[in-house]
């Protein structure tokens, strides 16, 4: 039976088990949190992003989760700079032109500030610049795509938390914690 690990990746943790190519680095890796042999990440989350990372010991499941051709929905809670308006949300919903082409349409909506754990280090607060939160669901996985999309509509990302991949979510999993399921 295949194993699937739902891991709540904290900010600043590499999505790999070793920090190759960075001798003397003190950056934390998955090995400091997930002590299960034979599981590997199905996809990635950037160093400065948080939230749901799936790991599995099943190569086919890993490909189905990570490969954009399967169009598995990934939902993010995104804190953006500025108060995001209807025009910016409409642009996200129809697709945003990036340097590597037009994105697929996303689901995008304004949400109240979510009840999340504090980030370490905290997001920089600027009294003169408001911020807001959106829920953004995409079905592709370009490099730093969510950050590039929000910037393209005039609202740079301040905090990015992946909350859901397909039917799996972070519900009940604290930062740095994981849950193992039979897949």
Mean pLDDT: 92
Task: Briefly note the CATH topology name of the largest domain.
Answer: Alpha-Beta Plaits
CATH architecture of the largest domain: 2-Layer Sandwich
Query: How many whole angstroms does the radius of gyration measure?
Result: 17 Å
Helix and strand string, N-terminal first? EEEHEHEEEEHEEE
Treating each run of at least 4 consecutive H or I residues as one helix, how many helices? 3
**Overall tally of domains:** 2
The percent of residues in helical segments reads 10-25%
Terminal-residue CA separation: 7 Å
**Classification by helices and strands:** alpha+beta
Chart the SSEs and their pairings:
Blueprint: E1 3-9, E2 40-41, E3 50-56, H1 59-66, E4 74-81, H2 86-94, E5 97-98, E6 101-102, E7 107-111, E8 131-138, H3 145-152, E9 157-165, E10 168-169, E11 178-182
Parallel strand pairs: 3-9
Antiparallel strand pairs: 1-3, 1-11, 2-3, 4-8, 4-9, 5-6, 7-8, 9-10
Could you describe the 3D structure shown?
This protein has 183 residues and is α+β, with helices and mostly antiparallel strands. It folds into two domains: 3-68 and 167-182, Alpha-Beta Plaits (2-Layer Sandwich); 73-165, Alpha-Beta Plaits (2-Layer Sandwich), CATH 3.30.70. Helices cover 14% and strands 31% of the residues. A hairpin with an 8-residue loop joins strand 2 (40-41) and strand 3 (50-56). The protein is globular. The termini are close together.
